[in-house]
Queue: 2 jobs
Job 1
Amino acid sequence: MHRRLYFVLPDAGHARAAAADLRAAGLDDAHLHALAREGVDLAGLPPASPRQRIDTLGRAERWLWNANLAVFALALAGLVWALVAGAGLAAAVALAVMVATVTAGYLFVQRLPHTHLEEFRQALAHGEVLLMADVPAERVAEIEALMRRRHPEAVPGGATWLVDALGV
C-alpha cells in the first residue's frame, strides 16, 4: 500500500524543481501529480487525473464510513431481535459484528492518515501548486526529509492512504 504525500508549493517553477528532485529519488511520473487552479501553467509537471481532481479517495472514505455505520445499525437491530426472540447464537453473532464495526471505525479514525483536497482549495485559489507524491509506506519519512532539505518553501500538507487498485 502506498501513501499519498501532499506538498503545497508557491508556484509552478518551484513545483517543477521539486518534481525533478522526486524523480531523481526514484519516483516516476505515474506517482507524481500536480494540481493548480485554471490558468496556472503546469508544463513539465504530471497533471492530476480527473479522479484525483474530484477527491475520489475522500468519497471512498465517506462511503466506507457510512457503510460501517449501516452495518452497525443492522447488527444492533439484529441483537435486539435476537434478545427478544431468545436466540442466543444470533445475539452472539450480532454482538460480534457490532464489536467488529466499532473496532473498524476506531482504526479508521485513529490509524489511517487522511487528507482531502478541500483542505487545499484556498492555496490553489491563490495560484499555488499542489504536488502529490505516491510513495511506498516505508519511504514516507525519506521523501518528507528530502522535501524539507531541498525545498523548504514546500508546505507539507499531510498524507493519506492509497490503494493502487483504485487507480486514483
Note: Helices lie at 12-24, 50-53, 56-85, 88-110, 121-125, 140-150.
Job 2
Amino acid sequence: NSHSSSSEEETKEKHVVSAAPVDNSDNAGNEIVEDIFDPQDVAGDEKELRAPICCILGHVDAGKTKLLDCIRGTNVQGREAGGITQQIGATYLPAENIRDRTSLKAETAIKVPGLLVIDTPGHESFSKMRSRGLSMCDIAVVVVDITKGLEKQTVESLHLLRCHNVSFIVALNKVDRLYGWKECTNAPIVEALKKQSDDVKSEYKWRLTKVVTEFKENGFNTAPYYENNKKKKVVNIVPTSAESGEGVPDLLLLLVRWLPDIITDKLAYDDTIECTVLEVNEHKDLGTTVDVVLINGVLRQGDQVIVCTKQGPVTTIIRDLLTPHPMKELKAKGCI
C-alpha cells in the first residue's frame, strides 16, 4: 500500500502576499475579518487535531484547479487535457506554507498540522468521482463563477453535499472578470474591494445578490463571510480570483482557523486506522501501488492490509510507503 507522487515538474511562480491590515467600514464585518487574521486564541486543554480533508467541487471551468494552482504556485491546470480535470488529485498544504501564503502573524495559532485538498473533475461524466471525493472529506469548497452563477454541476454538487451531510464554503471565483476590476495581488478580499470603483462595487453587489438568491432557491442560506455572524447556520461565501489571488488568504484561513473550532471532535486524532483508497496503479519500478488517503492512525512498512476489490478481498503486505511532496499534487490516474 503506497503513495505514488507525480514526477512532472511544477512551475515556480512567485506570489507576493499582501501583509496590509484588513479594514472595513462596517465594524461588525471588521471584527469577523480580524477574527481569522489576528491572534484571538485562549490557552486551554486542546485535543491533538489531524489535518482537515477538503474537497473542491464545482461546474467545469469554474476555476477549481486554477484556484489550487494559485494556492500552490503551480500550473497543473495548464497541463490537463483541454485544461479540464479528468482525475481526482490530492495536495497536502502544511501549516507553515499556509502561514506564508496568508502572511499570518507568527503569534497567531493554526490548530491543525495542515490541510489536505482533494480536487475533483467538474464535468458531467465524472459524477461518481465527485461522490467518491466527498465520502472522505470534512469540508468542501464549492467554486462558483461569479459571472455565471450556479450551473448544472454546481447544483449536482449541492445535492451530493446534502446527501453526505458535508458542510461547505463557497469560493465566488473570477472577481477579476468584473469590468474595471483593479488587481490587488493576493490581498484579503475586503481590502481588494475597498480599492475598487463605485461601478465595480455595484456590479459585484448585483452578482453577489444573484448568487445568494440562487443558493436560496436550492435550499441554502449564504452570505459573504465578512458579513456572516451565523457561520454555523449560514454558508460562508468568499469572493476570490484564481488569476491574481484576491480572497485566497481569506479562504485558506477560514479552512484552518474557523473550521477546527466548528468540527473539533471530528478532527480529533484517533489511533484507529481509517484509510480510503483513491486508486490502484501499476508503477514500472515499484509494481502495484495503491494511492490512499490516511485519515487516522498509522501505516508502517511490513503491515498486513486487506483491500476490498470487485473480485473480493485482497490481503497484502506493505512493502514501501511513499508520500507526495507538500504543495505538489498527487494525481490518481484513470477512472475510479
Note: The CA atoms of residues 232 and 262 lie 7 Å apart.
